[in-house]
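Researcher: Let's do a round of design. I'm pasting the structure tokens now; please hold your answer until I've finished.
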């Protein structure tokens, strides 16, 4: 490189030139303080507000979930009580139904027994009438046939 005006230029990176370290250190400190102030004043309050809102929403959601859980437990208890009550009613209805069926069956069996007794009595009456008719017919037939049998047995 050519030199101009008799001054020598520094060779290499200007950041590493020791003559500029004071100036660079000052501006580095100014820049870092400015960044810190911007972060502290602008960014951190917004982040805190956002985090606070998130915590608040999460806590509200947790409280709401606990309320729903409590309501669900209450509803479950109510349903269990109603289910038990329904089971008791169903068992009572079944018992009543069974008792009514037994009574109806007993009444039906007694009615059937009475009808069977009536039918047996009617059958016995019919049988006795038929026997009487048969006896009368046998007597009339025997009266008619007796002389013929006697004639057939005795040679004439």
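Researcher: That's everything. Go ahead.
Model: Designed sequence:
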């Amino acid at each position: 490189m050519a030199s101009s005006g008799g001054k020598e230029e520094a060779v290499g990176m200007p950041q590493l030139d020791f003559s500029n370290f004071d100036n660079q250190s000052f501006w580095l400190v100014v820049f870092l303080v400015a960044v810190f102030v911007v972060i502290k004043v602008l960014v951190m309050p917004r982040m805190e507000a956002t985090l606070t809102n998130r915590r608040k929403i999460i806590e509200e959601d947790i409280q709401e979930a606990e309320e729903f859980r409590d309501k669900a437990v209450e509803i479950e208890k109510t349903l269990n009580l109603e289910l038990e009550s329904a089971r008791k009613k169903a068992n009572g209805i079944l018992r009543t139904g069974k008792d009514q069926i037994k009574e109806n069956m007993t009444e039906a069996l007694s009615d059937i027994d009475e009808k069977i007794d009536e039918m047996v009595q009617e059958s016995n009456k019919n049988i006795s009438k038929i026997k009487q008719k048969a006896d009368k017919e046998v007597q009339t037939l025997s009266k008619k046939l007796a002389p013929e049998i006697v004639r057939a047995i005795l040679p004439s």
